[in-house]
Amino acid sequence: MEARNSNRSASPATRSSRARAPALVAALALVAMVPPAFAAEKLLRMPEGDVVKLEAPRGAQQTLTGALGRPHPFATAEQRAAVAPLPWLDDAAASKPAKGNAKPAPELRGPAGDARGGAAPPFAEYLARGDFAEAWRDLERMDAGAQPKARDGMVSPQDGAHYGYVRYPGNLNTSQWLAAPWNKIGKLYFTTPSGGSSYCTANVASGNSVLITAAHCVYTRGQGFNSNFVFVPADRYGVAPYGKYGWQSATVLNNWINEGGRRWDVAVIRLAGEQSSGRPVTDYVGWLGRSWNQPYVQYTYSHGYASNISTQYTNICRGYTYASSNEGTDVLVQGCDMTYGSSGGGWLRNYTPHSHSGNHVNAVVSGPHIGDFGQSYVGPRFSSSNIVPLCNAAGC
């Protein structure tokens, strides 16, 4: 795949006739509005597998500048709170079922591994309170008297076991949006190639400010990369207590582009500094760990901003993951009733509340389990074939 520019204009030398003069003036005016450099794709041949990396346009990484001088679509809390989640498109992400009734082969292309998470500096909360004072005042007002409630009939502190899992609210309350590991999980906003605004869930999972999310949140198959990426850790009702982050690069597996399939539905985004302070996201929230080539059966806590429950805070499903012959190799299944918006949410093994250790991202939400929409979902089992080449390319 050749690197390509997302915008092109004809040379003025080809438009020299007087009849085309008005068109030339209009074209030059348009070019004057375009940023000096455009995002470009590159195919990188990694030892573990090919990836495609998109570099962000210069000048639009940290400042969240809108295209062609237009206002950025995710600049305010009101804009962010109103964004709808990305739907699950089965035809874009469906796995290739295994033949017969045999369980999928593990394909462990290397030893099991993990990378440790990390804490923000000791003064991180003080720093965030100072840098994002208005956001903290908004959240403190909620906590003081107008604490939002979980939607009646949908969520309770622990709503019981269904299909081998238990679901409960995530960062609804101060005790969680303020603490690890929950403050390292947030909303990823973006514009689709068709021009619509949407969001997914994403996770800070590297000391180099690299996000892990689902590939379908980064690259729309058959159309190309999404754009205008903005990440808000611990997003709650559109408020950004730890700031807003543009992006430097986005990377997906070439297999996702060419084949699709749940096992390839993972992507990474390297973040720029916070739009106003310039600090990396890890200065405020730290980062989660990562793991790969682990057994299919794990006890995990999966997270997401699920629209069927609430788009404004996360929920958590806890339960065992397992393999399914219908889903194919390197795909995990977990019971959970979260749907749209939970895409990209991390499945954490070694779950350790109020701690910067453990909490390894082992998969992300991809979409519904075949024939079981709204009761279980699937995600790519992190392995040497997917998360390793992505992280090597992005510099996790």
UniProtKB/TrEMBL annotation:
The keyword Signal applies. One of its GO terms (biological process) is proteolysis. Keywords: Signal. GO terms for molecular function: serine-type endopeptidase activity. Coiled coil: none annotated. Residues 1-20, 94-116 are annotated as: Disordered. Residues 1-39 form the signal peptide. The keyword Glycoprotein does not apply. PROSITE patterns: TRYPSIN_HIS. Transmembrane segments: none annotated. It comes from the Bacteria. This is Trypsin-like serine protease.
